[in-house]
């Protein structure tokens, strides 16, 4: 009986060892980068961490096994800064290459947490003596909105926040305001004072003539009922404007 030697091929068709080694090296490099970013954050803290790395830390959770530096850079280029990224609408985020449902979810979790923390700093406190915290809260909430929104902060007799409500949302450069509705809502909440807040998506917080006229009408309504209008704040991407500080209230 003759034995026939079986010869196995040196490699399977399409099998390329160098490709596997390259992929493994890339994966190891990404893992090392993630570890270094996490370690730097733990040592330096959030204030000393570059925005690009803060964003990467968020993206690590959404995209566990892929390189995220490119996506972080792309998001910052599109929306300007970290706050702009987490505040961007889902529709605008989706338009960025590499952004999917998991990325949007993580970004919106961070946005909700930031707003909750900012709100906690002004709840159950005299907002007039915590003015910087109030401004931070308003900026966190509204500075990067894509449409104008009109909000009212309703306060009790001790100037503590009773409610923060968005009464109207408009277009990119206009929001309708009805002074009668503002006063009506203040009475429903048994509020003693109000602070008006709206945003300018253009970034310029300077008041328009319509803003000034509307504020006067609201003040007339609250004055007639013995309520106090403390201020009207305009929030823009580049800063804020206080009617009271500028002598308009």
UniProtKB/TrEMBL annotation:
GO biological process, one term: proteolysis
A Pfam family matched in the record: UPF0758_N
Gene Ontology terms for molecular function: metal ion binding; metallopeptidase activity
Domain named MPN: residues: 127-249
Record PROSITE patterns: MPN, UPF0758
Protein family: Belongs to the UPF0758 family.
Protein name from the UniProt record: DNA repair protein RadC
Organism listed in the record: Litoreibacter arenae DSM 19593
